[in-house]
Design brief:
Length: 273
Amino acid sequence: MSEGEALTELRGTDRIIVPVKLEPNTKFVFQCGPGVPCFKLCCSDLYLPLTPYDILRLRNRLKLTTDQFLVLYTEPFILPKSKLPVARLKMRNDEHRTCPFVTEKGCSVYEDRPLACRYYPLGLGIFRNRDAGKNEDFYYLVKEGFCQGLDTGPEMTVEEYRRSQGIPEMEEPVLEWAEIVMKKESLGPIDVPQKSLELFFMVSTNPERFRSFVFQSRFLEIYEVDKQTQERIKEDDLALLQFGFKWLKTVLFGENLVKLRQEVPKKRRLKPV
């Protein structure tokens, strides 16, 4: 089978992943827009997890609080492999379960569309190269029966496509979060305490609640957080996310990136706000 060749004749909602590992310089052909007959068909019946940065950008664009955005546009979702809880985009309650942001003209939040939307029709995987001691990305092609944009547009490399979709800028703020998900996947079906899952969900979905948790609970009595970091995460949501990811690595995997104070006052246990 040549690279990019379909395994079978696809129809309607048929969907396959082409089992070929794509590198950043691998070329493929694709186009999407109002001139393509299947325009917007990929914006229905989605199970689309949102990254923490997706939530920030969409919340800000819609001028909502995080709580308001989560209630109106998301629902809880358990990632199949890692079993970690995240928020996914909630589809409209219509015949085709369409995306809440799709209109006749296309995506109404296009400049702030989620990372998964930007990647389509590519998929992203991450694996741990134990010999090199680092994480490595790989890509693959998703083919769906309705999509007429594949093999009909301009030829480009995977990296050219990623840059044209603004993917690197959307990925950078959540690299450590993706590492957490990947590491949990690699550990297999181990039990994680319910409280730890709740903390992961809070950091992953709601910076306002996490900020309250840090500054209004006993968090700062228990963990060493320097004054400069405290001032930064009081105002900067992106800085708060980065701090939160390091803290999650400490809580979930014992990486000690946010250190415990040597002497912790003996009071009731730390709970989310």
